[in-house]
């Protein structure tokens, strides 16, 4: 069964990014349709897949990580507005039967992602 999972690693502190709100969108033409929300646990992961089963179809999706709120809670200094506040990761699902792991490696002035398994 196909699914989308994620986790957040705070690469500046070398630990999981906990309590980060993630909004989930499906891209339909020029529209972003909000289809869900999750929050990372103490391990920086979500307790359940972001999408799975019939909810996951071929198409384009976006995960919107509310990183600025996390950095504020962690007491990470930075200018206002923050350089990174909300981080959108847009990705395509070509096969809805596969596992798409879309992690976020976060620091106050940079981020990266990759497709994991």
Describe the structure in your own words:
The chain has one domain (3-113): Immunoglobulin-like, CATH 2.60.40. Strand 2 (8-10) and strand 3 form a beta hairpin. The protein is mainly β and 117 residues long. The protein has one helix at 67-73; strands at 3-5, 8-10, 15-16, 21-28, 31-39, 51-52, 59-66, 86-93, 99-101, 104-107, 110-113. Helices cover 6% and strands 46% of the residues. The longest helix is centred in the middle third of the chain and has 7 residues, at 67-73. This is 5-hydroxyisourate hydrolase.
What's the gist of this structure?
The chain has one helix and eleven strands, in the order βββββββαββββ.
Q: Strand portion, in percent?
A: over 45%
Secondary structure: helix percent: under 10%
Using only C-alpha atoms, the radius of gyration works out to: 14 Å
Give a quick account of the main beta sheet: strands, pairing sense, barrel closure: 4 strands, mixed
- CATH C-level category: Mainly Beta
Order of helices and strands: EEEEEEEHEEEE
Mean pLDDT, nearest integer?
96
Descriptive key words:
117 residues, mainly beta, Immunoglobulin-like, four-stranded antiparallel β-sheet, hydrolase, Thyroxine_BS
């Amino acid at each position: 069964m196909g699914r989308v999972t994620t986790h957040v690693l705070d690469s500046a502190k070398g630990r999981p990014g906990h309590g980060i709100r993630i909004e989930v969108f499906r891209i339909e033409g020029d529209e972003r349709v909000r289809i869900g929300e999750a929050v990372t646990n103490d391990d920086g992961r979500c307790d359940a897949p972001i999408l799975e089963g019939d909810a996951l179809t071929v198409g384009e999706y976006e995960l919107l990580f509310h990183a600025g709120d996390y950095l504020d809670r962690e007491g990470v200094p930075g200018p206002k507005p923050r350089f990174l506040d909300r981080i959108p990761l847009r990705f395509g699902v070509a096969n809805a039967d596969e596992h798409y792991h879309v992690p976020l490696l976060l620091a106050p002035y940079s981020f990266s992602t990759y497709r994991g398994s």
